[in-house]
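Moderator note: this is an archived Q&A kept for reference. The question asked for a predicted structure of one protein chain; the sequence and the answer are reproduced below.
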Amino acid sequence: MANIMNYCCLLDFEAKGGCFTWRKNIQNGGQVRKKPDRVMANSDWCLSFPHALVELLPMNKSDHNHLLLSCKKVNSKRLNL
C-alpha cells in the first residue's frame, strides 16, 4: 500500500476517534483489527482544504466503522462580474 501511495503522491489522513476501521471477533474472545478503509488525498487537495478532518464513526450493525470527511474550502479570490 505504501508503494502505491508514494507513487501516486497520496497522503493518508489520520482519523480522529480510533486507528482501526474493521474488526472481527475470533475464538476465545479475541479480535482481529485492521485499517482497510482510508481517506487519501494529494498535496494540492490538502492545500485547498487545510482544515479537512476525518472522523471514525461508531460501528452500526456492521463490522466496519464509517469514515466521515469534513472539509471547508479556503475562500479564494472572488471575481467581480
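Archived answer notes: DSSP finds two helices and seven strands in the chain.
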